Each structure stands twice: as structure tokens, then as C-alpha cells.
Amino acid sequence: MPASNQKKVILTAEAPQPIGPYSQAVQVGNFVFCSGQVGIDPKTGQVASSDVVGQAAQVMKNVKAVLDKAGCNWDSVVKTTIFLKSMNDFSAVNEVYATHFKGAPPARSTVEVSRLPKDVLVEIEVIAAF
């Protein structure tokens, strides 16, 4: 693999630590692939809120911490995927999500899933480029 395409693992204490064999993010060339983040407070290890708005807010804090560690920001994000326990939460999560993208928003997919880690209500993963 050429040097410019070598994988660099991104890890920060400002986001929840991986609970399995994965990295918070991996940089390859000019791309950063961030694993899905859930609403766990990295200081306590507990789900930050029982409601989807509180969880979504914590998710976005966690994503930002990983992006910051990688040298990226919200403007660097080119694609997101949102996983919802219930599509009924789409509007509420959308309101939280939208506050982080002031310019041209990234491409996005949103899907409803039957279950998420720790039985949370929302998970978000992002791909960034710089």
C-alpha cells in the first residue's frame, strides 16, 4: 500500500472508547471514516439521556470529538448515515443534526433499525474529507 494510503487510527478520550475490535475512526489519504457514535457520555460511560434529543446531542458531541482529533470539522463531512430505533424520531434528530451543518450539508442516509448498542435510540457515522 503506498504511503499516502496507509491507515492511521484516530483515537480520543473525548469520545466513548471502542467496546470491540474497531477504531473510533481511520484516516486513509484525505478521508476519515468515523465509526458510528451513540449517545454515551465518555466521562461516565453511561447513556447521556433517555430521550432521543438528548442522545442525538451527545452523539454529535462525540462525532465532533473524533473529527477534531482527526483535524477535521463539520465542513469536512461529506457523508453521514443515521441509524434510528424508530423513524418516528426522524424530525427530532434532524433538528439536532441540522444545527451542526451551517453550509452545504453532506450527503446522508437515514435508516430505521431493530436494535442499537446499549439499546440507544440513535447512532450516527460520518465520512470526512480534507
Layout: helices, strands, pairs:
Layout: E1 7-10, E2 25-28, E3 31-38, H1 52-70, E4 77-84, H2 90-98, E5 107-112, E6 122-129
Parallel strand pairs: 4-5
Antiparallel strand pairs: 1-2, 2-3, 3-6, 4-6
Helix pairs in contact: 1-2
Parts with pLDDT < 50 across at least 5 consecutive residues: none
Q: What would you call the structural class?
A: alpha+beta
The fraction of residues assigned to DSSP E strands is 25-35%
The order of strands across the largest sheet is 1-2-3-6-4-5
First-residue to last-residue Cα separation: 20 Å
General shape: globular
What count of helical segments does DSSP give?
2
Q: Give the SSE string.
A: EEEHEHEE
Radius of gyration: 14 Å
Give the % helix: 10-25%
How many strands, what sense, and barrel or not for the largest sheet? 6 strands, mixed
Averaging pLDDT over every residue, what do you get? Answer: 96
Total number of β-strand segments? 6
Please summarize what this structure is.
With 130 residues, this protein is of the alpha+beta class.
